[in-house]
Amino acid sequence: MKAFDHSKYRPISTAAMKNRQWPNRIITKAPIWASVDLRDGNQALLEPMNVAQKRRLWALLVKLGFKEIEVGFPSASKPDYDFVRWLIEEKQIPDDVTVQVLVQAREDLIVRTYEALKGVKRATVHFYNSTSTVQRERVFGLDRTGITAIAVKGAEWVKREAAKYPEIAWSFEYSPESFTNTEMDYAVEICEAVMDVMQPTPKNKLIINLPSTVESATPNVFADQVEYFATHISRRDSIILSVHTHNDRGSAVASAELAVLAGADRVEGTLLGNGERTGNCDVVTMAMNLYSQGVDPELDLSNPDEIIQVAGECTGIPLHPRHPWVGELVYTAFSGSHQDAIRKCLQKQQPDEHWQVAYLPIDPRDIGRDYQAVIRINSQSGKGGVAFVLERDYGLSLPRWLQVELAQQVQKASEAQGGEVNSETIHKIFMQHFVKDAQPLALGGYRIDRNEGQDKIEAQITENGKAITLNGAGEGALSAFIDGWIARSGKQISVVDYNEHAIGEGTNAEAVAYVQLNINGQRVSGVAFDHDTVSASLKAVLSALNRA
């Protein structure tokens, strides 16, 4: 057999669904979120979190608004046990937050788990055993009856130990581990057996958690499995249906979303997707997916940089710059056509209308990102991006013909240096190439007289330091000035386009003028700045003449 041989694998068997309903549904409200960062996320780390890191991550999870947090496996780990005790003894659990602990369906571990929870106000005891065919046959060597007996006995021990602490508000969660590789009729059967012991009611519901312990199929298959379970289990009004998706196929978020469509009430996951193998459902991504569709995620994700910093420092896992929603580069456009579209949309976007900006599915400012990083310039960028950067950082609103010309110069610079060109460099290129109003021609003083709709100008300029007087007439100062230069030089000059605007407000405002001249058949651009628009326009003409 070849080393890379697809024939040794087979597709997962699917649930027998004929009239599936989940494809016709949409998500209109957030699920119940349950963070498993401190348990599943922690046990997946090369170096598990120390006490200080756990406390820091706990504080962040509470701050973000998680109401259910799985805090560890106290019966299997002394650090987890000690952390649970710290939470309880130091009164670190808010009244509206429920801590959750995990335990296998083993008597000694269950007893130890309840000891760890002494003194807590409320808690969820999450017990599990593996149910898949391969686990039954190759790990435990038991048939369905034998595996069900483990689950039932675990439920009896969990219920027995809870009765010893009647002052605590207990809730319970059962997971048929490796649910996705379990026959669906058997998944229902074993959960029915657990419910027979736990006797949930609509007021005291049992959480039944369906984990894709190893993601084995496409998200639609998982949705079918969840809908099959939801429509075949009895006492549906007495359970909270939960899912815990893993990312082995890269679809943990999609699987969780489709599971909610299929009937799941609750989603377990981690911040930024940390977890065993390829990770868990990324709660930040899924919550932001809801947010972008106008659904309240019921988590405060307005400061993702804090989440990234705390999660990164606690887990030692850096965030990819293209991570959905919160990566460093996800709102950045290098492509010229993208930049142009973003710039135009932002100019038209009104504060009181729904968000409609090309290439930006949400307003980056909603999560603490400003527009500084939206458009960045490299050799793939175009005129729109260059213009956006200059307008954003320097207040320069370039006309289109100047955008095109400047973009060519910026692209050359980017290719020469082999990477991104920052805003300061773009501005420097702009000034060096287009603002040439001092040499060889420079403006001194001028006087304008208006008579019967025509302007006459007398302008003092220097050419290589030599004083020259220009006299011209025309409709407006700019036209009169060019008329005077034509008379002096004998060249054919006309104005192709002209723009001007102010930079800043009040007494500190500055005028900038952009002019494009046709000089003997050649188009030449010029730019200049001054405190009044007439002076700026005359200097812009000199910039163009000097460049020519």
Quick recap of the structure?
This protein has 17 helices and 14 strands. It has 548 residues and is α/β, with parallel strands linked by helices.
CATH superfamily label of the largest domain: Aldolase class I
Q: What does the radius of gyration come to?
A: 34 Å
Q: Biggest β-sheet, characterized?
A: 8 strands, parallel, barrel
Adjacency order of strands in the biggest sheet? 1-2-3-4-5-6-7-8
Can you tell me the residue ranges where pLDDT is under 50 for at least 5 consecutive residues?
none
Helical stretch count? 17
Mean pLDDT: 92
Shape: elongated
Mind telling me which CATH architecture of the largest domain this is?
Alpha-Beta Barrel
The figure for the number of domains is: 3
Question: Briefly, what CATH class of the largest domain?
Answer: Alpha Beta
E-strand count: 14
What structural category arises from helix and sheet content?
Answer: alpha/beta
End-to-end CA span: 73 Å
Return the CATH topology of the largest domain.
TIM Barrel
> Beta-sheet strand percentage?
15-25%
Fraction of residues in helix: 25-40%
Which characteristics define this entry?
single chain; 548 residues; alpha/beta; TIM Barrel; Double Stranded RNA Binding Domain; 8-stranded parallel β-barrel; 20% strand; elongated
